[in-house]
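Annotators were shown the component list below and the corresponding predicted structure, then asked to write short factual statements about the assembly.
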Amino acid sequence: MSAAASRYETVIGLEVHAQLSTRSKMFCGCPTTFGAPPNTQTCPVCLGMPGVLPVVNRRAVEFGIRTALAFSCRVNEACRFARKHYYYPDMPKNYQISQYEEPLAEDGFLEIDVEGGARSIGIQRLHLEEDVGKLLHEGTLETAQASLVDFNRSGVALMETVSRPDLSSPAEAASYLRAFRSVLIFLGVCDGNMEEGSLRCDANVSIRPRGSAPLGTKVEIKNLNSFRNVQRALEFEVRRQAQALDAGERIVQETRLWEADRGYTRSMRTKEFAHDYRYFPEPDLVPLQIDRRWVEEIRAELPELPRAWRRRAVAQYGLPPYDAEVLTQSRALVDYYEAALRESSQASGAGTDRPKVLSNWIMSELLRVLPGDDERAIKSSPIPPRHLVGLLQLIENSTISGKIAKDVFQKMFDTGQDARTIVEREGLTQVADEGALGRVIDSVMAANPKAIEDYRRGKKEAKGALIGQVMKETRGKANPALVNRLLEDKLSQT
Amino acid sequence: MIDRKDVEHVARLTRLALTEPELERMREQLNSILAHLDTLRAVPTEGVEPTSHAVDVVNVMREDEPAPCLPRDVALANAPDPSDGLFRVPRIIEE
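Structure shown to annotators:
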C-alpha cells in the first residue's frame, strides 16, 4: 500500500458508455458497421437536418432492459428522452438525445472479484442515448488547423451505466470494468471491443482523510479506454490529489483528460458554464411505457452470466477456478468449451478427465494461436470444437502421442482439416505394432553396444538414451510405453 | 427579469456573437416572452400532471432493420469545406 493510500481513502465511481450491438442506429435506420468509409452511413436524421423525426430502435430498448435485469436494476414503468445541449462539431444537432430525469432503469449492482473475496458495487442508473460523430485532426493535435468529422458513428445506440461511488481503489475500478464488460458480452448486447471504442469509460474520483465522513471534491477523468489505462490514470490521480492535500491545497472540481502516452491527467480548463446542458424533454419522441410482460419475457431469456458459469464449472466440471476465469474472458470461448464438452460426451473413450483435458488444450494451444477475448476470432476458429475432441480421441486411443498431437494441432489450425485426415495423410500414426517396433529396437541395440554394456553394469540411464534413439528412428511416432516394455524385455533376455 | 448578463450567457452557450444593439434587442424580446409566460401562469393548474407532449401517444418504436443511407456526395452537399469525404471544420479550441 502506497503512502497516499494509507493516509487517504479513495472513492471512485465509473460511468461506462457501451455501444449496443444493434444493426441500425438508435433513432434512424443507418447501419452501424465499424470501419465503413467516412460519412457513408448517414441520413438526414443522424446528420441533424432540420425537420427530421427520430424513431426509437426497439432492439436498443430490449438490450437496455436485458442489461438492467442482469444488474438487478429496477426497470422503470415509464421513461423519457431528453435533449442535452452543447456545441461541438461531432454533434450536428447541437444537442444529444439522452435520458435525464427518467432513465430506463435504476438501482442495481454488479458483483466483482477483489482480493480475498467478492464485493457488490452499486449501479445508480442505466440509460439510453445516441453516440456522436468522430473527430479526426489534421496533423498532430497541437498543430492542427482544422478538424475533420466523420458522422458514421453519429446516432449509434449507446447505453450509459453509472456506478455508485463504491469503488475504493484503482484496482477495484479496473476489476469492475472487467466484470462489466464480461456481463455485456455474455448478454450479447455489446461486443466489448475497447480498441474500436465499443466500450468507453469515465471516472469520478475523490479522496478524503481516512475515517473522515464527508466526501472529498470529485474530479472527473475522461479518456479511459482500456483496463490498464483505467488503473494507471486513477493511480496517477489519487497520487496527485494526495500530494495537493498534503501541500495544503484544495482540490478543484474539474474535468481532466488522461494522456495515456505521457502517463498523466491534465485539466481540460472547462469553464463552469460548459456544464449548463439545459436538458428538456425531447419533443420529437413520445415517452416509453415499458410493458411488464415484455420485461418478464426478456428476464426469462437471460443467459447464464460469467460468475454463475464459473461457479458451475468449478462445481459441476471440477475445473480449477483459474481455468474457469480464463474461459470466461469471452462468451464465444465458453460456448466453444461447452460445445467441446458435449461433443466429448457423445464421443467414445471415457475414463480420462475430459473437462480438465479440454480446458488444458484450449488454454495452452487454442489461446496460443487465437485471442480468447475476441468473440469473432473464437467463433470462426479454424479448429471447431468437434475437431479438437477428435484430436484428443486419437491421443486417448494411442493412435498418436501427446507430443505429435501438438504438431497435428498446428496443422489443423493452418488447414482447417480434422486430426484423423492429417494423421493418416502424413503417416503420423504411432507405431504400436510390436513386430515393427521390435525390429527398430533390434537395429538400435545393434548400433549401440556400448549403451547396452553400460546398462548391464548398472548405469540405468543408458536405457533412456536407447529409448531416445528409437523415438528418433520412428520420428516420434513410437508409443513410448510400448518401447519401454519391449526394450526392457530385450535387455533382460540378452 | 432577464438582464444583460443572462443574455450574454445564453449567447455564449449557443455560440452567437451578438453586437451591443443585438444584445439589447434580445434582452427586450426575451423579457416580453417571459411576460407572456406570466399570462400563462395565471391559468389554474392545480392537480394537473406536468406534460411534455401534447399528444397522448406512447411507445413509438421501429424494428432494428438497416435502411439505405444518403450517398456521400449528397450528405456532404451542404458542407462548406469538404475534404476527402469528411466535413472539414475549424480546429476546436478548448475553453
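Statements collected:
1. The beta strands of chain B are 61-62, 82-83, 86-90.
2. The interface with chain A takes residues 9, 12-15, 52-53, 55, 57-70, 72, 75-76, 81, 83-92, 94-95 of chain B (CB under 8 Å).
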